[in-house]
Amino acid sequence: MTKTSPDARRPRELRPAGRATRSAIEDAARSLFAERGFDGASVRAIAAAAGVDPALVIRHFGSKEALFLRTVDTSLGIGTVLDGPLETVGRRLVAYFLDPRRPVIRQRYVALAQAAHHDQVREEMIRHTAETYVAPLTPRLSGPNPELRVALAVAQLGGLLNLLFLQRDPIVTAADPEVVISTYGDAIQRLLTPPLAAEPDAR
Q1: Whole-number Å distance between alpha carbons of 117 and 150
Q2: CA-CA distance, 184 to 179, in Å (whole number)?
Q3: Can you list the residues of the chain whose pLDDT is less than 70?
Q4: Whether residue 114 sits in one domain with residue 180
Q5: pTM for the predicted model, two decimal places
């Protein structure tokens, strides 16, 4: 486990100069993580962009992972997409991530995926899945294993994002977005609201 510095634990107690330094580091990190991803944004590069010594980055935040979680929105802004009719949430989720007006979504997802092998980031992603998807959707589902079905739907969505944003699979990236939304959205939907089994023929 990474040791947290005193400054990282108590940012509000910093003097004005310390708060300004911390703010400059956060601004630089936010920009570089979005531009280069987690792996491409080194502590040294962040420090240079902020105009500070690299040691100050660790002093204020404890680790690169902690700084990443401080400056990157791990929620991907998905909360409001889950509002509305449950019967169409699958298509709404896919449409949200395919929307070309949201390039920042791709940047955030790539940065998160690159950092997911770090304990701090992985734990945050698990927490996010539980709070953003599982908690609000599970009570709305009927049938067996609702919590598991939500988790599997999130996993299914992650597979699409991996093909789109990391692998950039040409079959998926070149496909008609509306076809992807309907086809993949309906596949996710079947986990959340599975079709009722046909009643046996009484004849």
Answers
A1: 23
A2: 8
A3: 1-16, 74-77, 196-203
A4: yes
A5: 0.77
